[in-house]
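Table S2 (text version). Query chain:
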Amino acid sequence: MEMTNPFYLTGIIPEKYFCDRERETDLIITQVRNQSNVLLTSSRRMGKTQLIRHIFNDERISKNYHTFYVDIYATGSLQEMVFFLGKAIYQELVPEGKKALKLFLSTIRSLAAAFSVNPVTGEPQVNLQLGDILQPELSLEEIFEYLEKADRPCIVAIDEFQQISRYPEKNVEALLRTQIQKMNNCHFIFSGSNRHILEQMFSSYSKPFYNSAQPVHLGCIERSKYVDFVVEHFREAGIEISPEVVGDCYDQFEGYTYYNHKVFHDIFAFAAPGEAVDGETVRKTIDAILEENGHTYSEIMSSLPIPMKQMLAAVAKENPARKPMSGAFVKRNALPSPSSAQKAIAKLLDEQLITYRVVDNEKEYSITDKFFERWLRETY
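Corresponding structure-token output:
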């Protein structure tokens, strides 16, 4: 019988193949059950989305709450956000039966024509188009009104929440905060990976969302737990891999979940029972991944102005980069000037090509995509 690849990269991860996150799961569930909103932040590819899905499948939540997940990363306006939010809620309601759908259709009056029930088959049907969102503020108010009327408490997870700061409408944060403040039957998980924007939104006294959610930062899975997880699942398939080999890969990618999972996913896909995985297998697998993504990375670099290219290469080389606007850093990496470096850092942060963490009150910058970081070091 063919073995299931235990290193899931997409979809909902079965409990057996979900690695750790017990503390974060319990913390977020406790906060939501105590009627608090949550701000979940992490670097990209650390596993935020999978954690949210894992929490929604936990019996403490699935048996007692309606849960809705919407990713707004690709949105550029309030109209688009309302479009995806409306679709996400409707699709989750379909299995709940006619009563829930009837309440939805009677409450979301501005979009009622786009959601309907087939008069012959009785099956729900959705014909919502982006152009149907003619009054996004009204439709948003109606969606929240529905959630407040639902027969069970609701949890709405809005992933990549920082996107609302880019919308052309100037009042989106205030509009959402005003609506959310009124709600007793619905609580929110605001999730995102653009840390510096989210910090401004939730930590700045002048912002509408100031101090409105309990912060939870998702760091790396503990090294020993991840190593044990990988070794155990390879051995269940009859494949030997040493803790030292797994630990070395973990260290190369600084514990970022996705990059490690991608490497071990690809190794598992081609390994056969009775084989042994060594460091050379890991190295060749990483090289193959970099080659596979090389064209994409070249396209990214070709689209950037020279100062941003130079800064990316410098950050990848230093990893982590400390004081990248200082004269010493500029000289060491042959950058044009401190002012040019400052502008490049700001633009790279805005485009999420780099990220940072605070260590001893000092920002340490690194490349967001760890495979891209490795490719930059080898190419530049």
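Notes on Table S2: The mean pLDDT is 92. DSSP finds 16 helices and twelve strands in the chain.
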